[in-house]
Design brief:
Layout lengths: L3 E8 L7 H19 L6 E8 L5 H14 L4 E4 L3 H14 L2 E4 L12 E3 L8 H12 L4 E5 L2 H16 L6 E5 L7 H10 L4 E4 L2 H17 L10 E3 L4 H7 L7 E4 L8 H14 L7 H20 L4 H8 L3 E2 L6 E2 L12 E5 L5 E6 L14 H4 L15
Parallel strand pairs: 1-2, 1-3, 3-4, 4-5, 6-7, 6-8, 8-9, 9-10
Antiparallel strand pairs: 10-13, 11-12, 13-14
Helix pairs in contact: 1-10, 2-3, 6-7, 7-8, 10-11
């Protein structure tokens, strides 16, 4: 019997200021489509409909609109930055489609037309601060790329740090793609913060880490063991580009290559059997793979690609994935995810030094700690706990 073909839009940039992230996400999504299409258990095949926004935020909405009008797609897997996601949301709303978003973001958003599978601040920033502040101090320097992610993560971090009696030593932003970091390094050296919270992406992040490593060589008080860079978005993709300069710095993610869970071990074994030699995987690849797999299982369970029917399935069931079991809260349409904390090694991998005991339900508006923000500040060495 001929299997039905269901078109799915894949909307990632493989060129532009964060091209490496887009290439990894695209590879993960395409690998999942390949697995679905070779699995006779699915009564359909997925047909990828690709577009290349080139990292230009405004182009995402234009491509999304064209795809939804011309191809019969009802589902878009894609966008990385919040800027590009916000360009696509009005389009999927207008067409009655669903956007499947796989990347960490700054929270403070829910939308019936979006399913959020990346971590939000109570699943990435809070666990990171809870680890870093008691060990290094509560006076960080905040840096970020000059767009929504950088602004909002630093804003949230500032509020949380000040709530615990800490203080921000400085705060600076770089244009997307900028590698002019000398002035930033000079400010950090003068401020002598306890650690640096970096929300830089792409070439900016790499240039900054390399310059910070040089600062650490000339002034050992800026070595990672004393004043680390902590990040919610540094991945194996960044480590491959940066090299040994990243060693010792910290990042949080919902997946690291070699994660010693049964789901990750099985996934990597199956991936190796199909692909042979392959580069280290990152949360970009594995999250996109997981989202497409969940989409396929939800369509199969619903018996239709209709977005409303698929949404009902996704928000009422648990799905197996390389990330572990995934559930999506019907109230917020955000996934519960398990955070991990990694320390970068010189060989381009992360040593996993801490993991959440279980998946943390998303709290995109940080309602769970709102009452604490209204209380008098406790001692400066106290970190905020993750409220489940």
């Amino acid at each position: 019997m001929m299997r039905e073909t269901i078109p799915v839009a894949i909307l990632f940039s493989s060129t532009g200021p964060y091209a490496d992230l887009g290439k990894a996400a695209l590879a993960g999504a395409m690998a999942a489509i390949g697995d679905v299409n070779t699995d006779a258990g699915f009564p359909f095949r997925l047909k990828p409909v690709l577009a290349e926004p080139g990292g230009v935020a405004e182009a995402y909405g234009l491509h999304a609109d064209q795809i939804l009008r011309q191809t019969g797609c009802r589902h878009i897997v894609g966008t990385i930055t919040s800027w590009s996601r916000k360009e696509v949301i009005p389009v999927v709303e207008r067409h009655g489609a669903l956007l499947w978003y796989a990347f960490p973001y700054e929270g403070y958003e829910t939308n019936d037309s979006v399913l959020y599978f990346g971590a939000c601040p109570n699943q990435h920033l809070l666990p990171l601060l809870n680890h870093v502040m008691p060990r290094y101090g509560s006076r960080p320097f905040l840096v970020g790329s000059d767009y929504i992610w950088g602004w909002e993560i630093n804003r949230i971090a500032r509020e949380l740090i000040e709530t615990t009696g800490g203080a921000v030593a400085g705060e600076r932003y770089l244009p997307l793609g900028s590698t002019d970091v000398d002035g930033l390094i000079g400010e950090i050296r003068a401020a002598r913060p306890d650690f640096v919270l970096s929300n830089l992406i792409g070439p900016s992040a790499r240039a900054f880490v390399e310059a910070y490593a040089e600062l650490g060589r000339t002034d050992r008080s800026f070595a990672p063991a004393r004043r680390p860079i902590a990040s919610c978005n540094m991945t194996e993709i960044d480590l491959a580009a940066i090299g040994p300069a990243a060693a010792g710095h910290l990042s949080t993610a919902i997946y690291f290559d070699g994660l010693p869970t049964s789901e990750s071990i099985d996934f990597l074994a199956q991936f190796a059997a199909r692909q042979g030699q392959f580069p280290r995987l990152s949360s970009c690849h594995v999250s996109a793979y997981s989202v497409v797999t969940i989409l396929a299982h939800a369509i199969a369970a619903a018996g239709t690609p209709d977005p409303d029917a698929v949404r009902r399935i996704v928000t009422t069931r648990s799905f197996d994935s390389p990330l572990g079991p995934v559930t999506v809260d019907p109230a917020t349409q955000h996934a519960a995810v398990r955070p991990h904390l990694g320390r970068a090694r010189a060989n381009g991998t992360f040593e996993i030094i801490e993991s959440g005991s279980s998946a943390i339900p998303a709290d995109p508006y940080l309602v769970g700690i709102a009452s604490r923000l209204m209380q008098p500040a406790p001692a400066s060495n106290t970190a905020l706990r993750v409220v489940k």
